[in-house]
Amino acid sequence: MKRLYRNAQIASEDSPQLQTADVLVEGGQIIGVAAGITGVENAEIIDCTGCILLPGLFDIHVHAREPGQDDKENIASCAEAAINGGVTGFVMMPNTTPAIDNAGVVRSVLESARRTRIGPGIYTSGAITKGRKGEELAGIAGMKAAGCVMLTDDGYAVDNPQVLRRAMEYARDYDLPLSSHCELKALSGKGCMHEGKISYALGLPGIPNISEEICISRDIRLAEYAGVHLNIQHVTTIEGMRTIKRAKDRGIRVTCEITPHHLMFNHEHIGDYDTHYKMNPPLRTPEDNAALLQGLKDGWFDVIATDHAPHTPFEKNQDFASAPFGITGLETALVSLYDSYIAKDILSWQLIVQRYSAEPRRLMKLPPVPVKEGGIAEFIVFNPARTTTFSRDFMKSKSINTPFLDKTLQGMVERVVYRGEDLLAR
To answer: Which of 35, 236, 302, 327 sits at a 20 to 30 Å CA gap from 314?
Structure first.
């Protein structure tokens, strides 16, 4: 069946200008991109006037919670949440029960992923250490052979530098990027939010900047020594960002992530102990928000990633100190970025395509999916004139732990096309 997406404004990583054109799709391929395509018979016509058509998003930092935590999320519900937000591919984190730390679990989660509507677009990382305990290396060779695409103990740093060094050497030899959650627990202690005037006022133990920043410096030095590709997860501080920039300038193979919530929110949003704003690393200061946003605009960050972290209402309804860290993000990321930044001409569609579609795929050694003739039909139709209300009925994730719950934002993911198939049409 042919589909003709007419009068779309096409976003590309190569140009700040949107190209107005029709897009003709047959099967899983884009067979035409041009203004005013005519003479097409037996095609479904989809009017995209006023809409942005951009490549499917790709998220390298997602907690699908399978195996063992199905009350929070599973791979099937995670895939539906991704589609709902315009994400057509993602990488799962290994902090599951049991951890994804051997070839058998890697094969199991990938088989579960293949049963979803975007199965070929779902990948998994593997743990650096067995059980993510930081003591003994996981089965890296077996995980690589089973299809693991990245190593990380996400949620924990590897405290022992010798263990981390050996892991980096294995990652180098098996051509796997190693992603680091940078935090020194000796400094973070039992902290549950950013250490500063708000934590003091609320009487909550704080997590200081230096817990993250010192670990970033350490891991970069180890990565330089080992010659591995190091990816720094969810950077939150000005100095952490600057340290990574200096390392890049020296030619060290380091990439880094920025999350939408660390751009948009800070410790002042916690207000009356609202656990929807509790995450690790924590929300920092308004000054950090501004610096991180400028760093994203200036190209200091390689990818946007959500750190989608679903939890049950029971868990998040505990007191702030006891509630788990993390918020969901797959469904809210693109709309919230549009509402906060793109609609206000602070960020461009070109940057979104670069940092939340093309570069994440390249980091995982996958080809981008540009909207061009001969390319794979994997794209989003985004309508800036419509609004999205993130109600329980709207959301496909099992969990609703998001600061955007029941809020209405400008913009809507109107359609999601994956390998030629319309997975979503509103």
So the answer is: 236
Run of H or E residues at 284: none
For residue 298, give both structure tokens: 């200036």
Check: CB of residue 248 under 8 Å from CB of residue 278.
Answer: no
Question: Residue 268 carries which side chain, given as an amino acid letter?
Answer: E
On whether the CB atoms of residues 215 and 184 are closer than 8 A, the answer is yes
pLDDT band at 1 (very low <50, low <70, confident <90, very high): confident
Q: Are strands 2-12 and 15-26 parallel, antiparallel or unpaired?
A: antiparallel
Cis peptide before 360 (omega within 30 of 0): no
Q: Which residue matches tokens 């960050």? A: 301
Active site residue 59: no
Which tokens belong to 117?
A: 């509507």
Contact 416, 88 (CB under 8 A): yes
Average pLDDT, the chain: 97
Spatial distance between the Cα atoms of 49 and 21, rounded to a whole number of angstroms: 10
Residue-wise pLDDT for 178-193, tens only, equals 999 999 999 999 999 9
Joined tokens for residue 386: 């419509």
> pLDDT tens-digit profile of 103-135?
999 999 999 999 999 999 999 999 999 999 999
Classified as helix, coil or strand, 291 is helix
Contact indicator for 108, 96 with CB cutoff of 8 Å:
no
